[in-house]
Structures are given as structure tokens and as C-alpha cells.
């Protein structure tokens, strides 16, 4: 057998693939990270990324342990102290506050590009990680001893394990013919950032409307980021508005809780789809992040689930000898550990989306009653908060 180029090759250097490479830094494993598009590492300080994340406590722990959190600019991090959720009858409310759960913050809001940069810098310093970027794989073959990748430029690479971290439309997953049950929500996530007239005080808001879910997430300073998950008609209407009209539309939709808004940056839209992948591992192959699962963004948990994959897979691989990193039985341990948290998150997000996306008046009364009842059960809220933070 030809000598291997690495113990494992990670295809995809987005947040999840880069985090996995960083989690394996300074271990006996040799790692090759392949990324098709070089990430932007420099951006003007007075601009804000429209793509933001609510990072859970468990994800923050992982990012701290792998050395990426310390590279983030603290001035651009916004802790979430409280979350207020509103039903679609104009009255039902549910609130979560950090002190109720005995913590300082429910999550931390940060920008995609800042986290990508922090991870990329961490990976580039790792002595056992080699980055190939830009690099495009063209063929994948797996035999008993190794996974073999042929790149678009004709180069060949082999390793004991190939990890697909290449997003929701995963090329790696497609090459192996791994089945995916895809269910488009018929919705897009419309995202934009705003400066606000009133301070947000670290409060996140979410409204369930008959035609979608609007989230306002506090951004550092007197700013907020919205994710409006909505059908095609509303998406097109929002995208057609100029900055002034969009700011007014969003401010009114949220009852002017943050006063007048002023849009900063551009509006963007992402189609939303639930992907349920038949299996996460095969001999010499594992899937992580959006390649392994997607969820509706209403709970803001997509990337947190991906970081959960990273923590688990890295823990298992580090505990084994490098020679065993592609063994099916080793990888099955990863798959078994992730099955329940992924399934639970997909079911909860999907269930909520369906529950609130139904015009039946009885269901409408029931869901709003449910919100109000949950609000009055402090033990249940405490458990929900702890679960979301540790997801
Ligand atoms: C509107 C919206 C809002 C969201 N909000 C939140 C939120 O608040 N909180 C949260 O946790 N999650 C959120 N998510 C989900 C989150 O964005 C994803 O879960 C996360 O980005 C997945 O990261 P990933 O690294 O797995 O995949 P990706 O971010 O898709 O990265 C994949 C990487 O692989 C590379 N790649 C792809 N194909 C190849 C190839 N063939 N060869 C080489 N490289 C390749 C790509 O260039 C990319 O860098 C949201 C999603 C949407 C759509």
C-alpha cells in the first residue's frame, strides 16, 4: 500500500471543519484540511456580518478549549441575558432570564466571519494540521485500508479517515450515496443588522407570526440582528424593500421595542430545509456539521449541533491510536453518541415550526396557551434553559 498522506482528511473548512481540525491540533494525529474557498480574514472594523450565531455554553467551552475563543474581539461579543418569546395571539408570552438558570448569560451572540477567522488562525498554527486551500476534490474512493481523494488538479491524497464537513449539500456524502431525507420548509431565513434607537440590554426577542418567525438578537453596542424565517411571498417583499423601508417594517413587526431602526449592511436570504441523514459513519468516513444534519434556525442551534459533533468525534479519536481512527467500530461510537441530541433538536425545532405554521384556530389557541403555561412553570423553564445552553 502507498504511504498515507495523513491520518485523516477533513473536507470543508467552515466553522465545523475548522473547529474539528483545531480540536485535533497538537495530538499524534496528522490532519489535512481541504477547503474550496479561502475565508476572508480581514474586514473593515465598522462593518457587521449579517450572519450571526447564538453560541451555547457547551460550544463556548469547546471553542475556549481549542484556543479559538481567546482570539475573538471581546468588544464584538454580546451576552444574551434574557429571551422573550411571543405567541401569535398578541398576548401569550414566554420569558427566560439567565439568573433563573443560575448563570450569567443564556448564550453569546457573535459574527460568523469573526469566528471563522479565529478558527482559521488557530488551525494555521497547529503543527500537525496541513491546510490545502483553495482545493477541490473530484473523486473519492474507499477501500479496506484507506480513503483516497483525487483533487480537481489531478493530485491524489489518502488517509485512514475522511471527514465530510462540507455543509448541507455535502459532496462527500453524495460521493458515497448516503441517503438524505430532505424536507424544504418552503421558507427562507432573511437576515439583516440594524442600529437601534433604544438599548437592547442583552434581551433577545422572538415572535411567532402566522406567516413566519421573527427573531431579534442583540448585537454588541446598540445594534441588533434579525432572522425572519418566512415563506417566499414575504421573503420577496422584504428583499425588495430599501434599507429605510425594511428598517421601518422590522421595527413595526417587533412593536418598536427597540424604537426606530437604521439598517447597517445588506439584507440576505437563505433557503431553509430539514436534512435527516441516514447514517453519519461508514468504515473510513464520518460526517459532521450541516453535512450530517440541518435544523430550522428558530432555536439558533445549527452550528451548536455541529460543535457538539466536533467535541464528540475529537474525544473519541484522541482516545484511540491514530492507526484505528478510520475503524468502523470506533466511528460507530461517535454516531451512537450523536444520534439522540441531533434527533431531539431536529424534532423540537421541526415540531415548533409545524405547530406555529398551522392556521387551525384550535391549534392556535392551544399553542398560545402552551406558551403561557410554560411561562408559569419555573422548573420546566429551568430545564429548557439548561438543555439549550448545554446543547
Ligand atoms: C438563516 C440562517 C440562520 C442561522 N442561524 C443560526 C444561529 O443563530 N445559530 C446556529 O447555531 N446556527 C445557525 N444557522 C445554521 C448554521 O449556519 C450552520 O449550522 C453552520 O454554518 C454549519 O457549519 P458547517 O461548517 O457544517 O457548514 P458550512 O458553513 O456550510 O461550511 C462548509 C464548508 O465546506 C466548504 N466546502 C463545501 N463543499 C466543498 C468541497 N466540495 N470541497 C472543499 N470545500 C468545500 C465550503 O466552502 C464551506 O467553507 C443558521 C442557518 C441559517 C440558514
UniProtKB/TrEMBL annotation:
Residues 6-340 form the FAD-binding domain. GO terms for cellular component: ubiquinone biosynthesis complex. GO terms for molecular function: FAD binding; monooxygenase activity; oxidoreductase activity, acting on paired donors, with incorporation or reduction of molecular oxygen. SUPFAM superfamilies: FAD/NAD(P)-binding domain (SSF51905). InterPro entries: FAD-bd, FAD/NAD-bd_sf, Ubi_Hdrlase_CS, UbiH/COQ6, UbiH/COQ6_monooxygenase. Keywords: FAD, Flavoprotein, Monooxygenase, Oxidoreductase. The keyword Oxidoreductase applies. Its cofactor is FAD. Pfam families: FAD_binding_3. NCBIfam families: PRK07608.1-3 (NF005788), Ubi-OHases (TIGR01988). Belongs to the UbiH/COQ6 family. This is UbiH/UbiF family hydroxylase. It comes from Chitiniphilus eburneus.
